[in-house]
Design goal:
about 160 residues; Thiol Ester Dehydrase, Chain A; 4 helices; disordered N terminus
Length: about 160
Protein backbone atom coordinates (compact mmCIF):
# COMPACT_ATOMS: atom_id res chain seq x y z
CA UNK A 1 0.00 0.00 0.00
CA UNK A 2 1.40 3.38 -1.02
CA UNK A 3 1.36 6.25 1.43
CA UNK A 4 -0.49 9.36 0.17
CA UNK A 5 1.78 12.36 -0.39
CA UNK A 6 -0.18 15.01 1.51
CA UNK A 7 2.00 17.86 0.28
CA UNK A 8 0.74 17.27 -3.24
CA UNK A 9 -2.85 16.69 -2.11
CA UNK A 10 -2.84 19.95 -0.15
CA UNK A 11 -1.72 21.87 -3.21
CA UNK A 12 -4.38 20.36 -5.48
CA UNK A 13 -6.99 22.79 -6.76
CA UNK A 14 -10.27 22.90 -4.87
CA UNK A 15 -13.42 21.61 -6.51
CA UNK A 16 -15.95 24.30 -7.22
CA UNK A 17 -18.22 23.02 -4.41
CA UNK A 18 -15.31 22.99 -1.95
CA UNK A 19 -14.18 26.47 -3.03
CA UNK A 20 -17.74 27.76 -2.63
CA UNK A 21 -18.05 26.23 0.83
CA UNK A 22 -14.70 27.71 1.85
CA UNK A 23 -15.70 31.17 0.59
CA UNK A 24 -18.91 30.99 2.62
CA UNK A 25 -17.11 29.92 5.82
CA UNK A 26 -14.44 32.61 5.39
CA UNK A 27 -17.12 35.27 4.81
CA UNK A 28 -19.07 34.21 7.90
CA UNK A 29 -15.96 34.39 10.08
CA UNK A 30 -14.81 37.72 8.64
CA UNK A 31 -18.27 39.26 8.98
CA UNK A 32 -18.55 38.13 12.61
CA UNK A 33 -15.40 40.19 13.35
CA UNK A 34 -16.24 43.11 11.01
CA UNK A 35 -17.96 45.49 13.40
CA UNK A 36 -17.64 48.42 10.97
CA UNK A 37 -19.65 46.70 8.22
CA UNK A 38 -22.20 45.49 10.75
CA UNK A 39 -22.61 48.98 12.24
CA UNK A 40 -23.35 50.36 8.77
CA UNK A 41 -26.11 47.78 8.31
CA UNK A 42 -24.33 45.81 5.59
CA UNK A 43 -25.47 42.29 4.77
CA UNK A 44 -23.75 39.62 2.74
CA UNK A 45 -26.06 38.68 -0.13
CA UNK A 46 -23.71 36.22 -1.87
CA UNK A 47 -20.11 35.10 -1.81
CA UNK A 48 -18.09 32.72 -3.91
CA UNK A 49 -14.54 32.16 -5.05
CA UNK A 50 -13.19 35.60 -6.02
CA UNK A 51 -16.54 37.34 -5.70
CA UNK A 52 -18.84 38.92 -3.13
CA UNK A 53 -22.11 40.84 -3.09
CA UNK A 54 -23.04 43.05 -0.12
CA UNK A 55 -26.07 45.25 0.47
CA UNK A 56 -26.64 48.33 2.60
CA UNK A 57 -29.69 50.55 3.11
CA UNK A 58 -28.90 54.27 3.08
CA UNK A 59 -29.99 55.71 6.44
CA UNK A 60 -30.64 59.34 7.37
CA UNK A 61 -27.39 59.42 9.37
CA UNK A 62 -25.47 58.56 6.18
CA UNK A 63 -26.56 61.71 4.32
CA UNK A 64 -24.27 64.64 3.60
CA UNK A 65 -25.10 68.35 3.31
CA UNK A 66 -26.69 67.77 -0.11
CA UNK A 67 -29.12 65.18 1.31
CA UNK A 68 -27.37 62.40 -0.64
CA UNK A 69 -25.39 59.48 0.70
CA UNK A 70 -21.92 60.56 1.79
CA UNK A 71 -19.32 59.12 -0.58
CA UNK A 72 -17.39 57.64 2.33
CA UNK A 73 -20.26 55.26 3.08
CA UNK A 74 -20.48 54.18 -0.57
CA UNK A 75 -16.70 53.70 -0.61
CA UNK A 76 -16.85 51.60 2.57
CA UNK A 77 -19.57 49.36 1.11
CA UNK A 78 -17.46 48.79 -2.02
CA UNK A 79 -14.32 48.25 0.07
CA UNK A 80 -16.09 45.64 2.18
CA UNK A 81 -17.24 43.75 -0.94
CA UNK A 82 -13.63 43.92 -2.14
CA UNK A 83 -12.40 42.48 1.16
CA UNK A 84 -14.82 39.54 1.09
CA UNK A 85 -14.02 38.79 -2.56
CA UNK A 86 -10.23 38.87 -2.18
CA UNK A 87 -10.19 36.81 1.05
CA UNK A 88 -12.56 34.12 -0.26
CA UNK A 89 -9.76 31.55 -0.72
CA UNK A 90 -8.82 31.83 2.98
CA UNK A 91 -5.49 33.51 2.30
CA UNK A 92 -5.19 36.69 4.37
CA UNK A 93 -5.32 39.49 1.83
CA UNK A 94 -5.30 43.26 2.29
CA UNK A 95 -5.76 46.27 0.04
CA UNK A 96 -2.65 47.77 -1.51
CA UNK A 97 -4.60 50.48 -3.29
CA UNK A 98 -8.01 51.41 -4.59
CA UNK A 99 -9.95 54.08 -6.40
CA UNK A 100 -13.60 54.96 -6.84
CA UNK A 101 -15.62 56.91 -9.36
CA UNK A 102 -18.97 58.24 -8.18
CA UNK A 103 -21.43 58.03 -11.07
CA UNK A 104 -24.77 59.03 -9.52
CA UNK A 105 -26.04 60.03 -6.08
CA UNK A 106 -27.61 57.58 -3.66
CA UNK A 107 -30.50 58.82 -1.55
CA UNK A 108 -32.07 58.03 1.80
CA UNK A 109 -33.74 54.60 1.85
CA UNK A 110 -31.93 53.45 -1.30
CA UNK A 111 -30.73 49.88 -1.00
CA UNK A 112 -27.23 49.73 -2.41
CA UNK A 113 -25.64 46.53 -3.67
CA UNK A 114 -21.88 46.24 -4.16
CA UNK A 115 -20.95 43.44 -6.54
CA UNK A 116 -17.26 42.57 -6.43
CA UNK A 117 -15.41 40.30 -8.81
CA UNK A 118 -11.82 39.19 -9.23
CA UNK A 119 -10.36 40.39 -12.54
CA UNK A 120 -6.77 39.23 -12.13
CA UNK A 121 -4.83 37.15 -9.63
CA UNK A 122 -1.14 36.52 -10.08
CA UNK A 123 1.20 35.48 -7.31
CA UNK A 124 0.40 37.57 -4.26
CA UNK A 125 -1.44 40.40 -6.05
CA UNK A 126 -4.91 40.75 -7.47
CA UNK A 127 -7.23 43.26 -9.08
CA UNK A 128 -10.94 43.44 -8.22
CA UNK A 129 -13.76 45.50 -9.71
CA UNK A 130 -16.76 46.45 -7.62
CA UNK A 131 -19.90 48.04 -9.02
CA UNK A 132 -22.31 49.71 -6.60
CA UNK A 133 -25.92 49.82 -7.80
CA UNK A 134 -29.17 51.01 -6.26
CA UNK A 135 -32.40 49.01 -6.04
CA UNK A 136 -33.34 50.17 -9.56
CA UNK A 137 -30.15 48.71 -11.03
CA UNK A 138 -28.64 52.15 -11.64
CA UNK A 139 -24.88 52.38 -11.25
CA UNK A 140 -23.93 54.59 -8.31
CA UNK A 141 -20.15 54.01 -8.21
CA UNK A 142 -17.33 52.01 -9.76
CA UNK A 143 -14.48 50.89 -7.49
CA UNK A 144 -11.23 49.13 -8.39
CA UNK A 145 -9.16 47.51 -5.68
CA UNK A 146 -5.68 46.09 -5.79
CA UNK A 147 -4.93 43.35 -3.27
CA UNK A 148 -1.81 41.94 -1.68
CA UNK A 149 -1.69 38.56 0.04
CA UNK A 150 0.12 38.49 3.38
CA UNK A 151 0.91 35.66 5.78
CA UNK A 152 -1.88 33.76 7.45
CA UNK A 153 -5.40 32.49 6.94
CA UNK A 154 -8.76 33.98 7.79
CA UNK A 155 -10.00 30.76 9.38
CA UNK A 156 -7.77 28.24 11.12
CA UNK A 157 -8.88 25.15 9.21
CA UNK A 158 -6.94 24.10 6.14
CA UNK A 159 -8.38 25.24 2.80
Amino acid sequence: MTKLDTSVAAAAPLTSATAQSLAERVAAEMFARDLASQAMGMRIARVGPGRAELTMKVRADMLNGHATCHGGFIFTLADSAFAFACNSANMTTVASGCSIDFIAPARENDVLTAIGEERSLSGRTGVYDIEVRNQHGETIALFRGKSHRIKGHVIAEAP
